[in-house]
Write a structure and sequence with these properties.
Layout lengths: L14 E4 L5 E4 L8 H21 L18 H18 L7 H4 L1 H8 L3 H12 L1 H8 L2 H4 L2 H19 L5 H29 L5 H21 L1 H4 L3 H9 L5 H8 L6 H6 L6 H6 L1 H34 L5 H30 L1 H21 L5 H19 L2 H4 L6 H30 L1 H7 L2 H13 L8 H5 L10
Antiparallel strand pairs: 1-2
Length: about 475
């Protein structure tokens, strides 16, 4: 008997047979490439439960377990998400806001003899790489999400490895500027592709998996901290390790499909001009952009100066920082992301994002203003709740923009985020020299609280709705002549 997805989630070839001894047996294959081993124990346990129920003549299990998405997905969809996750993991090592730039910042500062103010300005310049992504990001709307992601991910590995050889701090910053531009477009293209191919009720759940994959890349960067701490060539070696990810990227891009939604709309007018052509699109981009701008004023400098705060203010060694991050960031954030995403899919984005976001900001403010053992629980609470809140709200970007400008619009929103990040980094860096980096960051905590209020009052609830409903997607527009 073929098993329904409700009985054995994640597989589409599950079979329940009865042997000569009268006992039932479940056979199946795991259709998740690269990460199937993570789900294998849960599938085995579910299969044993199905066998036991069949032997007892009882109804087969039908409830959706916590480790499966709320709505069944096809093997093609799962393979695509696994490939996107692998690319996110590999590129998350040196890229993004939690990669090598963030994790090795204190040691790059020492290698290049850069002050807090210089680091703040340098980080702000790097953030403006996202503005450059406004020029290349719309290519995902024009040429396809898959094609753009394949090229950008491959280039990432080569460029990141080269950054470690930068002879001066200025060249180091310039390299990261180019890398951030590339990564911004890559992140948006992968994010949009994932949101366009998965069922509506699974969107935040899938985002949580992508976030964990990116976080795993950042965790690898954390493990590289002791290498970077050994000196100038240790820093170069930490960056050079990114080349080891290139074969994995080349393998993953072969499994990436093109979005059916893109194929329907790719002949329409697209690009940055279309973001301002329609009033509804313009207002949506502005609303989401202002919200993330306010949030980034605090969270960007918090992220970039996190290790420096632990190093300079709390007096942690390199190994102590690694242990602290493992206990207060990775350990609480993983279950928080999974739980927050699932509740957001089933109950609503705002029910999760608004209250947890406010409490997370308060916890981080306390973390920055105290010392001693209290920093441990405050950091853990802040990271857990911020993770749950962030994964619930981040899907608003692709959900509220039409297909023809979904990549361009999200790049524009990301650009507004980086503008807030740059302002926050410069302010934190300048205030940090006078007040101390902890107090400087705590002052900025008021801005994400304003963002939470904006989400609560202005954003609609989109859980469970198709992208065509949430974005107001129109029938195909006239072809470009």
């Amino acid at each position: 008997m073929k098993l329904a997805p409700e009985a054995l989630p994640l597989v589409d070839d599950g079979e329940l047979t009865r042997g000569p001894d009268g006992r039932h047996r479940v056979t199946y294959s795991t259709p998740i490439p690269y990460f199937g081993f993570l789900w294998a124990p849960f599938l085995r346990r579910r299969a044993r439960a199905v066998e036991a129920a069949a032997d007892a003549g009882a109804p087969l299990p039908s409830g959706v377990p916590w480790w499966a998405p709320p709505v069944p997905m096809s093997t093609t969809q799962m393979a695509a998400i696994a490939a996107i996750s692998l690319i996110a993991l590999v590129t998350g090592y040196a890229g993004g806001t939690g990669g090598l730039l963030t994790q090795t910042l204190p040691y790059a500062g020492r290698a290049y003899h850069a002050s807090d103010a210089a680091l703040g300005v340098g980080l702000a310049v790097v953030r403006f790489g996202v503005l450059l992504a406004l020029l290349i990001g719309p290519l995902a709307d024009r040429r396809g999400r898959r094609r753009f992601a394949a090229v950008a991910a491959s280039l990432h590995c080569v460029l990141a490895a080269a950054i470690g050889l930068a002879p001066t701090f200025e060249v180091y910053v310039a390299g990261h500027l180019a890398l951030r531009c590339l990564d911004a477009g890559l992140t948006v293209s992968l994010f949009v592709l994932a949101m366009e191919i998965v069922p509506a009720r699974n969107r935040t759940t899938i985002v949580s998996l992508l976030a964990l994959a990116t976080g795993a890349g950042s965790a690898l960067a954390v493990l590289a901290i002791p290498v970077a701490a050994t000196g100038r060539w240790g820093l170069a070696g930490a960056y050079g390790l990114q080349l080891l990810g290139l074969p994995f990227v080349l393998r993953a891009v072969r499994r990436l499909p093109e979005s059916d939604r893109f194929l329907v709309h790719f002949r329409e007018r697209h690009g940055l001009r279309e973001l301002v052509a329609a009033r509804s699109v313009r207002r949506t981009v502005l609303l989401l952009g202002v919200t993330i701008f306010l949030s980034s004023l605090f969270f960007a400098p918090l992220t970039e100066f996190y290790n420096r705060y632990l190093d300079r203010v709390q007096g942690f060694s390199a190994s102590e920082i690694v242990f602290f991050l493992a206990i207060t960031t990775a350990l609480p954030s993983i279950p928080a992301v999974l739980a927050g995403a699932r509740v957001a899919d089933l109950r609503g984005r705002k029910r999760v994002g608004v209250p947890l976001g406010a409490v997370a900001v308060a916890a981080f403010a306390g973390f920055l203003l105290v010392s001693g053992v209290a920093v441990w629980p405050l950091a853990a609470v802040g990271n857990a709740l911020a993770s749950a809140s962030g994964v619930a709200l981040i899907v608003y970007g692709p959900e509220m923009l039409p297909t023809r400008v979904r990549a361009a619009g999200n790049n524009a929103i990301l650009a507004m985020s980086v503008t807030g990040s740059a302002v926050g980094l410069v302010v934190a860096g300048q205030l940090g020299d006078a007040l101390g980096i902890g107090h400087a960051l705590a002052i900025l905590a008021v801005f994400p609280l304003l963002a939470v209020v904006l989400v609560a009052l202005r954003l609609p609830e989109t859980a469970g709705q198709e992208l065509e409903e949430t974005s107001g997607d129109l029938p195909p527009l006239p072809l470009v002549s």
